[in-house]
Model the fold of this input.
Amino acid sequence: MKVLMIGLGSIGQRHLRNLTAYLGEEVTFLAYRVRGQQRTFADNMQIREGVSLEEEFSICSFSDLDKALAQKPKIVYVTTVTGQHIPCAIKAVQAGCDVFLEKPVSHDLEGVKELIEIAKEQKRVVFVGFQNRYHPCLKRLKEVVSAKQLGAIISVQSEMGERLTTMHAYENYADTYMARRDQGGGVILNQQIHELDYIQWIFGEPVSVVSFNGKNGTLQIDVEDYCDSIYWVNGQMGSFPIYAHADFFQYPPKRRCKVIFENGWAEADLQAAVFTLGQGDQVTKEEFTGFQRNQMFIDEMKDFLDCVRDRRQTAFTLDEGVVSLKMALAAKKSAKDQRTVMLNEVKL
Done:
């Protein structure tokens, strides 16, 4: 199987290693690389000095995307900066490739409708990489919510926080795509997007949001570094608010979701890999002590490859990826306009 990697930063290299371990000699790699950075990462995000990525994985690299696609890869992984996701994905689908598209789908809605239409016309698989859906704690939370075993949902609290200054210790945080508006940066699109994805996956698409976000100032970046939003859900799971917080400051990192039900509560702590269920005086904990973060990426890779092999659409569709993008854009619009924004105001 011939695979084209568009972008080979830390996440692209993780996918590269996982594909190699899973497919072995069945896979050959091409790469479209623009920045030409020669950093080779290990799983712990440390740079492996003196190691050539191209040599280690026998990668044939191109500086022209059309020339790379002319080699007729079967699969394309789009792991470049957020602002380049849609143009690269459209070209890949037009070339007849199935696409693994890293989150978020994009930084705005330009070209998204075109990608959806072309993918349907060409009958191509477009898989959006939200690996946290494979986290055992979130899967347990979805089971509890779907079963309605604790009664109606009263409210939801979603929180993520991680220190931007040490997120990529190998480079200046201010130079990363996460810190730059021109590359689709900001804490909402680059970190909280995972929370927005599981919110709509577990609880349904919100109908509105009121949001407060901005720049604390100490990081001196041109994108928001914190966000506090209240999404309102009115669907099959009932009507209730979801409070969603995100920031570029917390250390150690935090990622959790707590749901208050009429007859109890449940909390998924993604960082600690602990799921807690409370009902009356009884509190039970499930500790996933053997959990390895990379397993989520392996599971999503296998799911994607199965979809490609069986010629079926993924359970995590491009349309769902667009919902989380709309949620992010609605939150940004709410903060900018200082008002409640209906999700249906954000149109393709």
About this structure: The longest strand covers residues 226-235. The mean pLDDT is 93. The two ends are 34 Å apart (CA to CA). The chain has ten helices and 15 strands.
